[in-house]
TrEMBL record:
InterPro entries: Mal/L-sulf/L-lact_DH-like_NADP, Mal/L-sulfo/L-lacto_DH-like_sf, Malate/L-lactate_DH-like. This is Malate/L-lactate dehydrogenase. It comes from Aspergillus pseudotamarii. Belongs to the LDH2/MDH2 oxidoreductase family. The keyword Oxidoreductase applies. The keyword Oxidoreductase applies. Keywords: Oxidoreductase. PANTHER family: MALATE DEHYDROGENASE (PTHR11091:SF0), OXIDOREDUCTASE-RELATED (PTHR11091). GO terms for molecular function: oxidoreductase activity.
């Protein structure tokens, strides 16, 4: 099965917006590609290799499949996303989408988008006020022992983005070399590294 991502966003008033962007797998496939580029191992519960065995080798994992989060419920979520983005859209589904790094044929990727206008249900200010309250309830929840902070969905990524804007994006040399090789292919300047 594929791991079609699921994304959802909802604005708030004064608080941070709700942002969810995830694959229904234990980890995003991009993390496997990143580990392979960096020569790092991955947790053995992330993926199966081409022979159906758990592996901590990202290159072998890329020959196999990602494992679903949450067991059967995660698998059901992955199938649901495949129904919407593959079957319903008329594009590739059931694991037949060509990978992003395989230029041999079109990927045939489908998408399923839903937009909801909150003010059809209530005033927009009321909606945002309710979203602010939801944020406060989530981050203000009682914490387990050893937990310093509870993050709202998307909040860690928002904090990381702010840090990257200030400090730049951390790359290892192999990633810089790969990006510069691609830059050469299309005739653009190399990545500026400081």
């Amino acid at each position: 099965m594929g791991v079609s991502p699921l994304a959802c966003g909802a604005p708030a008033g004064k608080e941070k917006p709700f942002i969810l962007d995830m694959a229904p797998s234990i980890a995003a496939r991009g993390k496997i590609y990143k580990a392979a580029r960096r020569g790092e191992k991955i947790p053995a519960d992330w993926a199966l290799d081409g022979e159906g065995k758990q592996t901590d080798d990202p290159n072998r994992a890329l020959e196999g499949v990602m494992l679903p989060m949450g067991g059967p419920k995660g698998s059901a979520l992955a199938v649901m996303m495949d129904v919407f983005s593959g079957v319903l859209s008329g594009s590739a589904f059931a694991g037949h989408v060509t990978g992003p790094y395989d230029p041999s044929k079109p990927a045939d990727v489908g998408h399923f988008l839903v937009a909801i206008k909150p003010d059809l249900f209530m005033g927009l200010d009321d909606f945002k006020e309710r979203m602010d309250y939801l944020y406060q309830r989530v981050v203000g929840s009682e914490k387990m022992a050893g937990v310093d902070r509870i993050y709202y969905p998307g909040e860690i990524e928002q904090i990381t983005r702010e840090e990257r804007v200030k400090s730049g994006i951390p790359f290892v040399q192999a990633e810089i070399d790969a990006l510069n090789k691609e830059a050469d292919k299309v005739g653009v300047e190399h990545l500026v590294v400081s």
